[in-house]
Amino acid sequence: MTESARLAEEAVADVAERLAEYVVRYEAARDSRAVFAYLYLQLTRSLATALSVGDPVFRDPSWVADLAESLAGEYFAASDAMDAWAARTGTTPQTTVAPEELPHTVPEPWREVFAAISGGRSYVLEDALFSMMAHITYDLPVAMRRMAARSNVTSHIADFHLMNDVLGIAIDFVQDELASRYCWWLADLDRIFARNDELFSNYGIRVSRGMAWFNFSRLTDPAAADDAERSIRTSTGAFIQQVREPDWWALRVATRAGRLLVPERRRWPSASSTP
Predict the structure, then answer these.
(1) One of this protein's Pfam families, by short name (predicted)?
(2) Tell me, what's the pLDDT at 170?
(3) Residue 148 neighbours by CB distance under 10 Å
(4) Which candidate, 232, 171, 166, 159, places its Cα nearest to that of 202?
(5) Phi and psi at residue 269, to the nearest 5°
(6) How far is it, in rounded angstroms, from Cα 174 to Cα 261?
């Protein structure tokens, strides 16, 4: 392993360690946010492993680590802002909240997610899908825009797509891990979300991250930045609405019936089960 790869692997491993702390805290509180934190932890560990073994061979491992850290920073900031508000208001994970009740220190896509999975009444697959939507369609282009202020992001597109390969290949394993840890009946939930869970796949990871790169490019173009900002702010809320209340009436009825027939079926790991 080169020195650059070793330092990059250590940096990504540090991100994973911090994510593990969020998983432990959220699981102890029976907070639905634990599901995505655990998913994110496993994907980050997969990236750290890829850097460690040198497969694939990244051209600039330090840039890969920088992106991983910058992207995680967006997630940590949103989560910490939500935690601070909850502590200040006495809101618990079992409290149902509306997006408009949440503070603007939390970005709009994450307000939509936190509201949608609040109250402990969401499905495990919703916890994963909604958060992935916010993290990829909003956090990722924003993180890359921040990075562009200090380095040339566009010259690293090859490494970006190698990251997509690593994460896309890992997602099947992560699905199994989520099912084992939180919901043995994840396959049943797939039937409810059959038209909306493409994001939770190898193909979906690649396509959504490719779209994030496109939106990053729009954000850095003065002529397109306003439309891009509006798009990445509102796409998560629109996605959640489409999952919960599909436009086609027959599908809407079928979705509602499916939610009645398939309860949440959530389980929580024991306190001794380390992530």
Answers:
(1) DUF5995
(2) 92
(3) 15
(4) 171
(5) -70, 160
(6) 26
- DSSP 8-state assignment for residue 60: -
Residues 6+ apart with CB under 8 A from 90: none
Cα 68 from Cα 194, distance rounded (Å):
30
**In terms of Cα–Cα distance, which of 233, 206, 201 is closest to 218?**
233
Instruction: Give the gyration radius of the chain's Cα atoms.
Output: 18
Q: Read off the pLDDT of residues 207-228 as tens digits, 9 standing for 90 and up.
A: 999 999 999 999 999 999 999 9
Q: Are 72 and 15 in contact (CB under 8 A)?
A: yes
In total, the chain counts a number of residues equal to 275
Of 139, 129, 142, nearest in space to 240 by CA? 129
Q: What percent of the chain has pLDDT over 70?
A: 87
For the cut 60, the answer to whether the pLDDT of residue 191 exceeds it is no
Q: Would you say the C-alpha torsion 169, 175, 178, 180 has a positive or negative sign?
A: negative
Instruction: Enter the tokens of residue 43.
Output: 């994907």
Contact in structure between 150 and 144 (CB atoms under 8 Å): no
Residue type, 185: W
Enumerate long-range contacts of 92-96, CB under 8 Å, 24 or more apart. Answer: 92/29, 93/26, 93/29, 93/30, 93/31, 93/32, 93/33, 93/118, 93/120, 94/30, 94/119, 94/120, 95/119, 96/121
Domain boundaries, the chain: 3-261
pLDDT confidence of residue 150: 86
What percent of the residues of the chain are helix, what percent strand, and what percent coil, each to the nearest 5?
75, 0, 25
The CA distance from 116 to 98, in Å, is 8
Band of residue 272 on the pLDDT scale cut at 50, 70, 90: confident
Name residue 204's amino acid: G
Is residue 167 a contact partner of residue 209, using CB atoms and an 8 Å limit?
yes
